[in-house]
């Protein structure tokens, strides 16, 4: 279905930048940025409805966010080919491509669950881009086996009185966690707090600094710390904590994060996209990490949407960085022994994610340039012993949850698990080498990961070489 909607927006411009970019510059409004020809940020909010086989779209609203566009004007076009979805913004008259980005969505994940086979659901989604000065056509595309195909188009025409330029309610003061330069020259990371009461503002500030240090202690973020600006926002909650329906805990937190997403107890996402985007609009951002105010193990990450972590858990450092890998660089999960809600694909195709492969043609391995001469493809490892150990851990994990044991017992189980995993995988013949190790993408067979161990596989402390390269590629898109 491809319904069209005409949306129009008032604009102000300076001629030269308009001729070059098609976007409207205004006086800079972001913290620490001198007056410059930068456009405001436009956001198209829409509803994505469907099931496992069908989908349709409807416009919610078009808004002009409070701040200027934070992105690098020289990197408006996404050439990474990442994401299950992509949107293009084109000059309607000339067809010139002005802006594009790939992304994943909560709907996209949900559509692969059992529920989606027999039910419809609707999710709010958003597209953000520099405010145009000319009428533009926005094409939303979905990845198919043959490439990206249009699934929805709308026209944004800069003249309509219904575009919302009002300010949403303030989420509170903006916290400057790290300022390394102008937002247009840096990766702009926003750390949001959810489930913090007004009295817990100090705790959020401490937690936000703690998460930032966790992230920048991990390579390659450590080496690129100066390429990041980091901000914090924390709308006050009426109650402390976020909902966990499986434990009978229900809350209405400002950002809507919750455990038990898609029926998986550890999976923390928000489906309150409208609320999330209104809060986030008060900071310059390209990427979001949400700190859930809680101690029970959990988190989640959606490429170019957001990542989450339960910040008071012992394993928050691992979970926060792992989930940020999903959001930031579209890294796939390499594990396959933990339960997930997603159904396996009906037939095997080559994944688009940079760190997993179906190895349909070993001669065309996507990370072949990182494989040392003499490393066999596929690369042997003691998978049978590893899987036997992991099955035992997963059984203990289920028993602890079913019995309602204290979280410290789960944390201790994970500590023992990582100790054993590091010993087993570290002793492998090809440990630390790039190859193609079977097991990944939630499947024990038929998919391969680049190294025997990685943050995306176990609670390891380091990304593999392929994941590091993928992360650095994204940093290069946003930082000058």
Automatic annotation (TrEMBL):
Gene3D superfamilies, sorted: Collagenase (Catalytic Domain) (3.40.390.10), Peptidase M64, N-terminal domain (2.60.40.3250)
GO molecular function, one term: metallopeptidase activity
Coiled-coil parts of chain: none
Pfam families according to UniProt: M64_N, Peptidase_M64
Ranges where the Peptidase M64 N-terminal domain occurs: 38-147
InterPro entries, alphabetized: M64_N, M64_N_sf, MetalloPept_cat_dom_sf, Peptidase_M64_IgA
Name assigned to this protein: IgA peptidase
Naturally occurring in which organism (per UniProt): Candidatus Sulfotelmatobacter kueseliae
């Amino acid at each position: 279905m491809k319904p069209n909607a005409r949306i129009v927006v008032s604009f102000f411009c300076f001629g030269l930048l308009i001729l070059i970019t098609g976007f409207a510059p205004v006086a800079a409004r972001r913290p620490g940025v001198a007056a410059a020809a930068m456009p405001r940020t436009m956001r198209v909010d829409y509803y994505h409805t469907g099931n496992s086989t069908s989908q349709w779209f409807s416009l919610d609203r078009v808004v002009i966010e409070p701040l200027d566009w934070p992105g690098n004007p020289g990197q408006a076009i996404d050439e990474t080919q990442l994401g299950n979805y992509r949107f293009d913004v084109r000059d309607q008259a000339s067809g010139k491509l002005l802006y594009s980005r790939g992304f994943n969505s909560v709907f996209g994940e949900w559509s692969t669950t059992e529920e989606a086979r027999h039910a419809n659901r609707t999710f709010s989604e958003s597209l953000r881009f520099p405010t145009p000065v000319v009428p533009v056509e926005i094409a939303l595309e979905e990845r198919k086996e043959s490439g990206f195909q249009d699934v929805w188009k709308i026209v944004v025409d800069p003249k309509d009185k219904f575009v919302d330029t009002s300010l949403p309610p303030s989420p509170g003061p903006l916290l400057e966690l790290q300022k390394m330069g102008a937002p247009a020259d840096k990766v702009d990371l926003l750390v949001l707090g959810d489930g913090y009461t007004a009295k817990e503002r100090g705790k959020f500030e401490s937690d936000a600094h703690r998460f930032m240090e966790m992230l920048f202690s991990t390579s390659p973020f450590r080496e690129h710390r100066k390429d990041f600006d980091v901000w914090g926002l924390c709308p006050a909650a009426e109650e402390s904590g976020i909902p966990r329906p499986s434990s009978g805990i229900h809350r209405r937190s400002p950002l809507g994060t919750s455990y038990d997403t898609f029926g998986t107890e550890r999976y923390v996402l928000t489906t309150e996209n409208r609320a999330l985007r209104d809060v986030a609009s008060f900071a310059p951002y390209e990427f979001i990490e949400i700190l859930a105010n809680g101690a029970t193990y959990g988190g989640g990450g959606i490429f170019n949407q957001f990542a989450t972590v339960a910040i008071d858990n012992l394993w928050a450092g691992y979970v926060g960085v792992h989930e940020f890998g999903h959001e930031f660089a579209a890294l796939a999960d390499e594990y396959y022994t933990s339960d997930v809600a997603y159904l396996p694909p009906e037939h095997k195709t080559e994944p688009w994610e940079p760190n997993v492969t179906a190895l349909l043609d070993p001669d065309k391995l996507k990370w072949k340039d990182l494989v040392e001469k003499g490393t066999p493809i596929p690369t042997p490892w003691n998978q049978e012993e590893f899987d036997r150990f992991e099955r035992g851990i997963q059984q203990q994990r289920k028993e602890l949850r079913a019995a309602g044991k204290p979280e410290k017992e789960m944390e201790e189980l994970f500590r023992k698990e990582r100790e054993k995993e590091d010993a087993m995988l570290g002793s492998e013949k090809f440990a630390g080498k790039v190859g193609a190790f079977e097991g990944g993408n939630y499947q024990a067979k038929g998919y391969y990961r680049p190294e025997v161990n990685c943050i995306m596989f176990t609670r390891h402390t380091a990304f593999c070489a392929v994941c590091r390269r993928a992360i650095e590629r994204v940093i290069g898109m946003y930082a000058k």
